[in-house]
Description:
This protein has 13 helices and no strands. It is mainly α.
Amino acid sequence: MSLVTSSNALAVKLQSRDSTREPTWVRYTLLTIALIFFLSCLILPLVLVFVEAFRQGIDVYVNALTNPDTLSAVKLTLLTAAIAVPLNVVFGVAAAWAVAKFQFRGKSILTTLIDLPFSVSPVIAGLMLVLMFGMQGWFGPWLMDHDIKILYAVPAIVLATVFITVPFVARELIPLMEAQGTEEEEAAIVLGASGWQTFRKVTLPNIKWGLLYGVILCNARAMGEFGAVSVVSGHIRGETNTLPLHVEILYNEYTYSAAFAVASLLAFLAIITLILKTWVEIRQEKQNNRNDSAAS
């Protein structure tokens, strides 16, 4: 009797599993659609960028990259990222720690403000800076009287980039810290550790891969930002043009090979970002598996 019951239970289990499994033709159709979309919208444009960049030969490609305006755009892009990313790392870690480890009034408002750049168009973000620091803006006359230049200069580009990239580090760390809880930090404090020691020896090792993941995404967005920077930069060639803006200028001037050559730098950055992102995800998954094994 028990054997019959077990057989019936196994049959019911297999039948339920088959009922939730899609037919073979449906699975292959979905995979084909996904593959076509991946090739046509991601791989093909990336390949075309490099093909067009080298269409007129390696000399044209090298000349486009060594052009003084291109080098100036590279320097400004690196400078902007070098300022914006550390600022967002500091803010992201502090905001994530506050949201995940403490209960306080206005917590929901803080999380909403962190997500604000995701809901605001980059062009609108740039326009907000114009309304604040422009000649007719709130601080424009005071800045002009004191000979301080914000708009159409490096400070405005940095401010726009910082605003757009604010959520990346914080949004990566908040769920991670919430999942880890506060037990380890509380134990360290009970044992006499200071706040800085607790962060450096307990919190930071637990969040290092999530932090690195957020830094990679923040850096990639900082170097590739176009909309907000375009509004506040003034498009001054050799002075306030980042790499995306320089690509636009070259393309509008019908120097397509040079435009695609400079665009290949951004494409190369995207490839490096994807490689680093994948590596961090693998390391983070291994760490999670080790933590789960230790907990069990």
